[in-house]
Design brief:
- This protein has a domain at 51-148.
- 40% of the residues lie in helices and 0% in strands.
- It is built from seven helices and no strands.
């Protein structure tokens, strides 16, 4: 099974530590495995708590950005739930609506790679595991977004 990096809600699953651990043949620190939002192998939190995935699937949508109700109250609540990497979902879906999926995925791959060495990053990393460079992660991005809004 190949991992999928796009999601229904606008998160880039390629920056998920659980998916990265699964791709390497293991599990994350809590024993979870996942191959992405659009796969059959989902992390427990995504499987049990996500409200966007079942809604989009029931409507036959590729993402919440394709919905006539975008951005709905469910998506906005998710974006504002205080989890740093959730704060970009509406922005990501708007970008995805204006670009083709492959271009969006490539931009996300670049965004979530270390600028110094190219190592794949996760949402919460503070430093690159390969070169030690400081990273612009979701936590810093959320702080910056809150000071500009």
């Amino acid at each position: 099974m190949q991992a999928g990096y796009d999601s229904y809600c606008g998160l880039y699953c390629g920056a998920c530590g659980t998916l990265s651990a699964t791709e390497k043949g293991g599990t994350d620190a809590s024993g979870e495995r996942c191959m992405g939002c659009k796969s059959d192998l989902l992390a427990r939190g995504c499987k049990e708590k996500c409200r966007m995935r079942p809604c989009a699937v029931s409507r036959g949508l590729d993402s919440c950005g394709d919905c006539a109700e975008f951005p709905c109250a469910i998506l906005l609540a998710f974006e504002r739930d205080g989890v740093a990497h959730h704060n970009a979902v509406v922005r990501n879906l708007n970008l995805l609506r204006r670009a083709d999926k492959e271009a969006w995925l490539e931009a996300q791959r670049t965004r979530w790679s270390c600028a110094k060495c190219g190592e794949k990053l996760s949402w919460k990393q503070e430093t690159c595991v390969r070169c030690g460079d400081g990273l612009y992660n979701s936590l810093k991005e959320a702080r910056d977004a809150s000071t500009t809004t």
